[in-house]
Amino acid sequence: MKNFPGVFRRVVRGGLLMAAMVATVATPVVWSSAQEKHDSDYLGRQDVDAFIDELVVEHRFSRTELELILAGAERSERALELISRPAEGTLEWKDYRKIFITQERIAKGVSFWEENAETLARVEQELGVPANIIVAIIGVETYYGRQTGGFKVLDALTTLGFDFPRRGEFFRKELKNFLLLAREQNLDVDELTGSYAGAMGIPQFMPSSYRAYAVDYTGDQQANIWLSDEDAIASVANYLQKHGWKYGSGVAVQAKVSGIKHEQIVSSGLKPDKKLSLVQKAGWAVPKMVPKSSKVLAMKHVGIAGAEYWVGLHNFYVITRYNRSQMYALAVYQLAREVKDSYNRSLALQKQVAKGKQG
Fold it and tell me: CB-side exposure of 275: number of CA atoms within 13 Å?
């Protein structure tokens, strides 16, 4: 079992959150002057005060505790910049694919699989989510735990919750869940880091997803998605399983099109909502492996060689529950396929070498 330094050890003494909790029981912290509130990027704002009121009433937080925490939150201009131009909205598929389907990412996916083969096999059997899909999610999200983000989660969520009106309600909800999570798990809110949107750890869970789907697979009473590959793997599988993953069913297939009506069936949505027969009548030639009773999502994306036509199935939609993007789900699916092929070749080679040594 790995030791959990800093970010994920239980706080016994010290730490912002624990200090605040102790203060509410012993000596309450009071603001020494109005200047301290004025210096905070967020404390004293009417919308922030209303947010504090809500947490105090609904979740029995101490007002002093929340004021102490939010006084330390700093506005992140970088988070605002990045949230305004996500890759899914600015790149064509041919460019997006180049980021995630690389020989290096495939090779590192094989290494990650080999290092965690026992856990992946057990989780696949228990939760019914294929190992290669789990590996690909982690590979796309954080390059197998190498790129988990350097933003303070408190800063990111507070900034987007109160200074990004278009999705402010969503991020205020995540900030609330983050504060609840910190209290439940005894975490130091000042140490936790993640993406510019507040996603955390190896699988990049938002706080609400952590609270709903994170799994303590090692049995140490902590779902440590920051440092434990085992917990991260089980958490990804649990997320997909709870969102309806169907084991043994396909994800997506590439189609050929003809005629003049095939463009009419193309969708920018995420949910398979058209009968396969309707898509076929519009000029889409879909591989026979797709069950005739399927509802499908007809997609068109610009690939390296021109237009690519894809048909998304139910499990494709499940992947989009992780990130609501057609291109994201396509990247996960294609990376999963490439990693699995490479992993199987590696296994075959290892067996061949072992057999040669025995001979």
Answer: 5
Candidates 148, 172, 213; CA nearest to 8 is 148
Structure tokens at 239: 């997320």
Taking alpha carbons only, the member of 8, 12, 31, 33 closest to residue 21 is 12
Distance of CA 187 to the CA centre of its chain: 20
Query: What are 297's strand-pairing partners?
Result: 312
Q: 205-255: per-residue pLDDT in tens? A: 999 999 999 999 999 998 999 999 999 999 999 999 999 999 999 999 999
Residue 239, helix vs strand vs coil: helix
SS3 311: strand
> What Cα–Cα distance (Å) separates residue 58 from each residue in 61, 62, 293?
8, 11, 46
Alpha helices in the chain (DSSP H): 16-25, 34-39, 46-59, 63-71, 77-83, 87-90, 93-100, 103-115, 117-127, 131-142, 153-163, 168-185, 207-213, 229-242, 276-281, 314-320, 326-358
| pTM metric for this prediction | 0.88
Q: Are 132 and 337 in contact (CB under 8 A)?
A: yes
> What does DSSP say about strands 274-275 and 284-285: parallel, antiparallel, or unpaired?
unpaired
Q: Judge whether 239 and 213 are in contact, CB under 8 Å.
A: yes
CA-wise closest residue to 72 among 101, 50, 39: 39
Widest pairwise Cα distance in the chain: 82
Active site residues: 141
